[in-house]
Design a protein that fits this description.
Blueprint (H helix, E strand, L loop, with lengths): L5 E6 L8 H13 L4 E7 L1 H11 L6 E5 L10 H7 L4 H10 L5 E4 L3 H12 L9 E7 L4 E5 L9 H17 L8 E4 L10 H11 L5 E5 L3 H4 L4 E3 L2 H26 L3 H21 L1 H4 L2 E4 L5 E3 L6 H16 L2 H13 L1
Parallel strand pairs: 1-2, 1-4, 2-3, 4-11, 6-9, 7-8, 7-9
Antiparallel strand pairs: 5-6, 5-10, 10-11
Helix pairs in contact: 1-2, 1-12, 3-5, 4-5, 6-7, 6-13, 9-10
Length: 338
């Protein structure tokens, strides 16, 4: 597979800046990796080709597949699945289902990407609920929080599955050997938590994974664990709070620099450090979050994804396919299902 071109279908109509960011990001990816990537833009063909003409790109590894309909951010996922078979999201997933593409990326309606991907591609054997993991910067390296919104009400076995998938992903995609797994709770002690965490703790403790016990919210950015497992309700709250950190830092530095020339000078001295912090928190650099547990590859991006974010999502999809993350998840799960 290393020598083969990976075919990535792009939901060109999904996202706040579609199709402009999607087209420009696809062009960047196709230009950068002509020998390893084939990018397929799926959406309203005339509109996509208009944007392609603006870019001036003529690339043999970039093609367009028409889709007349769009799943909007306001659409209910289950209803959209029933009523929008001609949407760019559905047709892009059909390409993967029919073996005409190896992966999907979308910056569209997250719930719809989850629903469509699960129903179209099916689940990996042994997985009851697909999940979304998000990458956070930390003192030591990076941390994946999983789940961040796919399943609001989880069962203990769901959290065990998330831990397995998160461990595989961090190992093979981020090259972290034997990732440390933490269970998000209200205290480090085994006795702290609720019924879900008590039961999940027992499963994780006997899982054979590198489980280090309970971790608290403050441990996420400390990097105490490489994978922090929680239900989707809590995880989504954590994610939305983290997303606000970058805006807060920018706002505080802007207010500080407006006070006087001396303050501006001090901000200028701190700029290199600020730039690194901003980069660490920048979703564009991580290339979207994986939908783990589906029998295929779906990468979900921020609704406001820029061309850089789209390019990195395509690269993330290619890497996930090449490193055969799904087959590795299946192999580990077999040990739990015997």
């Amino acid at each position: 597979m290393q020598s083969e071109k990976i075919r990535v279908a792009v939901d060109a109509m999904g996202g706040d800046n579609a199709p402009d960011s999607q087209v420009r990001g696809a062009v960047l990816a196709a230009e950068e990796r002509p020998g390893s990537l084939e990018v397929i833009l799926v959406g309203r063909k005339a509109l996509i080709e208009k944007h392609l003409a603006k870019s001036g790109a003529e690339l043999s590894n970039l093609s367009v597949v028409n889709a007349d309909d769009v799943v909007t951010m306001e659409d209910t996922p289950s209803e959209a699945f029933k009523t929008k078979p001609e949407s760019s999201l559905n047709i892009a997933l059909n390409l993967q289902k029919d073996k005409k593409a190896d992966a999907l990326i979308s910056a569209g309606n997250t719930g719809a990407v989850l629903t469509f991907s699960t129903l179209k591609l099916g689940r990996i054997e042994g997985i009851s609920r697909p999940t979304i993991g998000s990458i956070f910067p930390s003192w030591k390296d990076i941390t994946m929080v999983i789940d961040v919104g796919a399943t609001v009400d989880c069962r203990p076995n769901n959290l065990l599955e998330y831990a397995v998938m998160g461990s595989v992903y961090m190992n093979y995609i981020h090259n972290i050997d034997n990732p440390r797994i933490g269970l998000l709770s209200i205290g480090e002690e085994k006795s702290k938590g609720n019924e879900l965490t008590f039961e999940a703790y027992k499963l994780l403790e006997n899982s054979g994974l590198n489980f280090i016990g309970n971790v608290e919210g403050r441990d996420i950015l400390k990097g105490t664990a490489n994978v922090v497992v929680c239900d989707g309700f809590v995880g989504n709250v954590v994610l939305k709070l983290a997303e606000s950190v970058l805006d807060l830092l920018k706002n505080k530095f802007r207010q500080f620099s407006e006070k006087s020339l001396w303050h501006k000078f001090r901000v200028a001295l701190a700029y290199p450090t600020l730039k690194k912090i901003v980069q660490d928190f920048n979703y564009e650099e991580f290339g979207g979050v994986p939908l783990l547990g589906v029998n295929g590859v779906s990468i979900i991006g921020h609704g406001k994804s820029t061309p850089l974010a789209i390019k990195n999502m395509i690269f993330k999809a290619e890497e996930t396919v090449r490193k055969q993350v799904n087959s590795k998840i299946k192999k580990i799960l077999e040990t739990y299902n015997k």
